[in-house]
Design a protein that fits this description.
Layout (H helix, E strand, L loop, with lengths): L1 H6 L7 H6 L14 H5 L10 H14 L3 E8 L5 E7 L2 H4 L2 H11 L8 H10 L2 E7 L7 H15 L3 H9 E6 L4 H14 L39 H13 L3 E8 L5 E2 L14 H20 L19 H4 L4 E8 L5 E3 L5 E3 H21 L1 H17 L6 E4 L5 H13 L4 E4 L3 E7 L6 E5 L4 E4 L5 H8 L18 H4 L4 E4 L7 E4 L9 E2 L6 E4 L5 H11 L5 E3 L3 E3 L2 E3 L4 E4 L7 H11 L4 E4 L6 E2 L7 E3 L5 E5 L5 H14 L5 E4 L13 E4 L11 H12 L3 E5 L1 H5 L23 H15 L3 H10 L5 E7 L12 E6 L12 E6 L12 H7 L3 E8 L2 E6 L13 H10 L5
Parallel strand pairs: 3-4, 3-5, 5-7, 17-23, 26-27, 26-28, 28-29, 29-34
Antiparallel strand pairs: 1-2, 2-4, 6-7, 8-9, 10-14, 10-15, 11-14, 11-16, 12-13, 12-15, 18-22, 18-23, 19-22, 19-25, 20-21, 20-24, 30-31, 30-32, 32-33, 33-34
């Protein structure tokens, strides 16, 4: 009975007392404040807002010589991003020495002998980074962070001291402060004097947009590799300063689950070393022993994989750490009743995260030397790179700005990047071609060698096709950065050319006006994404702009359709100085010409030159829009391109005067029909008839189809008539129906799992003569996910369509789903009266690292609205 008395705590004891009884003979320094002594309530009684979380941590720092706190950045809502550094005072006194020694381990080229390596491995403490609350509504982990910090700062028992002597513990108590605060303010306001444990209660049903994401509704747990968000951009330099040996990301999942910790589920990315499985098992065993003592339920090796490189477990794993996700049942307010009748409380959730955190620290201490040896071995083996591919080459092409940004992204992650200082001819294989051949590479080409310590991460981010060891994916199954950036890239088995030099920073190319002061017009090519920024800046200044619907050549320069023409005689005299300044600011070359007579193609006064309208833009927000889709659009316009728009809730559309807007975008999301009824649909139809441009993306596009709103005649591929199906399709459908009848439960679950497109590259053809296709090549790659394909439309323009051999590139897709995509529509434009309706079957803004497709959307917005 003694064990029961220790493990099942009395209600009258504080949470701190309860959790610290896990240290059965624990003693504590009374000078260190407990959470309840500062907060005025026990952890688990309510959610701690960010101000009080900060207040408690500041009290710890002020009272203990075991902890330091640094601010490494701030959020979009100006909340500080903070890190606690906890260890023994002796270790803290030599922080700089520890960081410098550990940094040497990450580059074995700086270590001159085995003796030096052994000396470092013996002298260094292990470094463990604990990240709490990356998803703001997975709310128990920041509560656990406070107790973990208290235990480490106040505990005077031998176990705690052993942890402090052997480890540097880095605690990020709230990775996503803005999302957490959004959730906590709602959760605390929704609960009454007594928690309602009924799962139907409002207090368990968080409203749109939820606190999961950051200010711009981005999932920070998918952003580690791409670094599009302010929080990630601040965290990565600090992470690279420390390069921890173990990293844990604390999460929550559905309230009906138990607790998950590593080993990870399959697939594990092929570039990660086999030691990942060994350490997953060791940490899993340590956690299991701690949970067994409490009688807590848990599971391992299910569902949460280690494949996509942008997670808080996988990205640290590609940086030598053992990166792990821990998932606690949650997603509820203070207390909720499970279907089996048991109660899940915030207190229990926080205790479990505290338990796994301490178990992880103790496991690291137990295997400290081996953990450090394997960490060092990770970088040693990274230098050797056993693969045949020795490097990747990325040409600047017509879009040097995107290439420069890609190089910057790699450099920020410690990946070495070189640049050709003179032209070179190398044996290389262009992405998605059959074999290598002699290729010419101009000066300025980027060369990323795989003979470097960071070869694993470099290969994972750059390779065109990642090895697929399984058919279940928790996230997308393809992501190659050069493909996402729309750049021309190659693999090579050749060594780094002698003319290539390492770069430590990459500046965007200097934009300039070529040809001096224009006497007749300025011409802006439309290949670069940043040309959109330049054009919008000119719109904001009130300049009159036109664009060419056909290609032409002038002054020895070729201009594709979409080129912007700024006639000098239509502008104020300030146009010359403004264009020069804006070209430099946005890194876009502008060409001055003296005549409207061109060398080839249309002349500048052609009927194929059309005036541009500065559009007024609205985007639907709130239910049923996807927070991710809306967030990507919000970030794209607000942060990346500085283009204003008006966010309108769908349920408010009835009171909106749509004549104030030229473009209305419906993001991806759920079914819009409950929000936009027949009256709103009629209103939208009339607005389009009068000249509006209505844009639907994924779920928004589905709403615009014939079977949903009837705004267009678009049909889904699943709505094919029987006489339109091929014999192969009919036979396959018949066989499938017969097979389903005989399936076991397991077989049906497996079929459901396998019958998906989690995120794979599909080829698409773009109509480059259509304004939406301006600035693009005829064939591009799209990240196709599980959205429903559209049939090629009659009586409309199929601006983008998937090719019959679409999935010949990268990622996993069920064969049946891939066949549905073949020759389906990607972008359809319908014309009604003076207006346009445009359907995108796939997102062109995915997580904001898929930059190569952004201009498709901007083309829609800038070129389709018709001037009065």
């Amino acid at each position: 009975m003694k064990r029961v008395a220790i493990l099942f705590f009395a209600v009258s004891t504080t949470f701190a007392q309860q959790a610290t009884q896990l240290f059965q003979d624990g003693t504590y320094n009374p000078a260190i404040p407990t959470p309840i002594s500062v907060l005025g309530y026990d952890i688990g009684d309510r959610f701690t807002d960010f101000r009080n979380l900060e207040r408690y941590l500041d009290k710890l720092v002020a009272s203990s010589d075991r902890v330091r706190k640094i601010q490494y950045g701030e959020t979009n809502e100006s909340r500080p991003l903070q890190l606690l550094i906890i260890s023994s005072p002796q270790n803290l006194s030599r922080i700089d020495e520890i960081k410098a020694g550990n940094k040497k381990l990450t580059d074995p080229r700086t270590i001159t002998s085995k003796a030096e390596a052994d000396q470092l491995l013996n002298a260094l403490p292990a470094i463990v980074w604990l990240s709490y609350g990356v998803h703001g509504n997975e709310s128990s982990s920041p509560e656990a962070a406070m107790l973990t910090a208290y235990q480490l700062c106040a505990g005077t028992d031998q176990r705690t001291q052993h942890i402090l002597d052997n480890l540097i513990i880095l605690i990020d108590p709230a990775v996503n402060p803005d999302g957490r605060e959004r959730y906590v303010q709602w959760a605390n306001s929704a609960i009454g004097a007594t928690a309602n444990t009924n799962s139907d209660a409002y207090e368990h049903s968080e409203p749109w947009p939820s606190g999961r994401t950051n200010h711009y509704y981005f999932d920070l747990n998918r952003d580690w590799a791409w670094q599009t968000q302010k929080e990630t951009q601040a965290r990565i330099p600090l992470y690279r300063e420390w390069m921890p040996h173990t990293h844990v990301d604390f999460h929550e999942m559905g309230y009906t689950s138990t607790y998950f910790f590593f080993p990870a589920a399959a697939p594990i990315h092929a570039e990660l070393p086999p030691e990942m499985k060994k350490w997953g098992a060791l940490y899993g065993k340590g956690n299991a022993e701690a949970f067994d003592k409490l009688g807590n339920q848990y599971y391992t090796a299910e569902f949460f994989d280690l494949y996509y490189p942008g997670y808080g477990d996988s990205w640290p794993s590609f940086n030598g750490a053992i990166g792990m996700t821990y998932e606690q049942a949650g997603g509820a307010n203070i207390a909720i009743k499970k279907p089996n009748g048991s109660m899940l409380t915030l207190r229990e959730r926080a205790i479990n995260h505290f338990t796994s955190g301490i178990a992880t620290l103790e496991t690291t201490v137990k295997y400290k030397k081996e953990r450090l040896q394997d960490f060092y071995g990770f970088w040693v083996s990274g230098l050797k790179n056993p693969s045949r591919t020795k490097g990747f080459l990325i040409k600047e092409g017509p879009e040097p700005n995107r290439a420069a940004r890609l190089a910057r992204t790699l450099l920020k992650q410690g990946i070495e990047v070189h640049r050709l200082q003179e032209p070179a001819t190398l044996d290389a294989q262009r992405y998605y071609t059959s074999k290598a051949s002699k290729q010419s590479f101009p000066q300025g080409t980027y060369f990323i060698s795989l003979l470097q310590p960071q070869s694993r991460l470099a290969k994972a981010l750059l390779e065109p096709t990642a090895a697929i060891p399984d058919t279940f994916f928790y996230d997308v199954s393809a992501w190659s950065l050069p493909v996402a950036s729309g750049l021309e890239a190659y693999m090579t088995e050749a060594a780094l050319p002698a003319s290539a030099t390492a770069v430590s920073d990459v500046s965007l190319p200097a934009g300039r006006v070529i040809g001096g002061k224009a006497a007749y017009a300025y011409l802006i090519p439309w290949e670069r994404n940043d040309a959109v920024k330049l054009v919008w800046a000119l719109h904001e200044k009130g300049y009159k702009l036109t664009y060419a619907n056909r290609a032409f050549s002038s002054s020895g320069q070729h201009f594709r359709a979409g080129a912007i023409i700024v006639f000098v005689h239509q502008q104020q005299e300030t146009i010359h100085a403004d264009l020069s300044r804006l070209a430099s600011l946005h890194s876009v070359d502008v060409f001055a010409v003296k005549s409207g007579l061109t060398d080839k193609g249309i002349n500048l006064g052609s009927n194929y030159v059309r005036p541009m309208k500065k559009p007024s833009i609205a985007i639907l927000t709130d239910t049923p829009a996807s927070i991710y889709s809306y967030g990507e659009l919000w970030f794209l316009f607000d942060k990346e391109y500085n283009i204003p728009f008006t966010a309108i809730r769908g349920r408010d559309l009835g009171g909106v005067n749509l004549s104030h807007y030229d473009v209305l975008i419906l993001p991806d999301g759920g079914d819009y029909r409950p929000v936009l009824d027949s009256t709103q649909i009629a209103k939208l139809k009339q607005w389009v008839q009068n000249g509006g441009v209505l844009v639907g993306i994924e779920g928004g596009a589905l709403f615009l189809t014939k079977s949903r709103s009837g705004i267009t005649n678009a049909l889904l591929t699943s709505e094919k008539k029987e006489d339109e199906k091929t014999m192969e399709e009919k036979e396959e459908e018949k066989e499938r129906k017969e097979s389903v009848k005989r399936e076991t439960l397991f077989e049906r679950e497996e079929r459901t799992r396998l019958d998906a497109i989690p995120g794979a590259f599909f080829k698409a053809y773009i109509d480059t003569t259509h304004p939406i296709g301006y600035g693009y090549d005829k064939e591009i790659l799209i990240l196709k996910r599980n959205s429903t394909p559209l049939q090629l439309a009659e009586g409309a323009f199929n601006v983008g369509r998937f090719t019959p051999d679409s999935l010949e590139t990268s990622g996993y897709a069920a064969k049946t789903k891939a066949r549905q995509v073949a020759d389906a529509a990607f972008i359809i434009e319908y014309r009604t009266g003076r207006g346009r309706t445009v359907l995108y079957s796939e997102s062109v803004t995915f997580r904001m690292f898929w930059t190569g497709l952004h201009k498709l959307l901007f083309n829609t917005i800038l070129f389709l609205p018709q001037p009065e």
